[in-house]
Amino acid sequence: MARLRRLGAGRMADAAKAFGLSTTRRAALAAIVVCALAFTIAVPLRTYLSQRAAVVEQEQRLAELKAEVARLEQRREELHDPAQVEAEARRRLRYVMPGETPYMVQFPEDTTRDGSDDEDRSPEPKPWYEMMWEDVTKG
C-alpha cells in the first residue's frame, strides 16, 4: 500500500515537472478551480432558493383562496333558503311585504340617511358659477 502511495506521489510530481508547475502555482491553480466551482454552483443555488420561497408564498396564497372559496360556497348554500333571501332583502334593501307598514327609526346621533356622521365628510363646496352669481347679485 505504501508502495502505491509512493508511485502515485511520484506520478504527480512527474506531471507537475512536465507542466513546469511549482507548488505555489499548483496551489493558485487549485484555488482558481475551487472558486470557479463555487461560482458555478452559487447562481443555480440562489435561483433554487428564490424559487422555493416563491413556491411557499404561492402555497399560502392558494390556502387563502381555498378558504375564501369555502366561505363563498357556504354563503351560496345559505342563500338557497328563501327565508334567508327574504331576511337579506328586508335588512339590506329595506323591502317590506304587502300590507306591512315600514318605520324608519332615526336616533338623535344619526344625522344623515345612510347612518354616517357629517363629521366624517367635509362640506361640498358650491360650484364656481353659483359663487360668481352670488358675488354679482350682492355687489
Automatic annotation (TrEMBL):
Q: Which organism is it from?
A: Saccharomonospora viridis (strain ATCC 15386 / DSM 43017 / JCM 3036 / CCUG 5913 / NBRC 12207 / NCIMB 9602 / P101)
Coiled-coil regions listed in the entry = 48-82
Q: What InterPro entries does its record include? A: FtsL/DivIC (IPR007060)
Q: What is this protein called?
A: Septum formation initiator
- Top-level taxon: Bacteria
Its keywords, alphabetically, are: Coiled coil
Disordered: annotated segments:
104-139
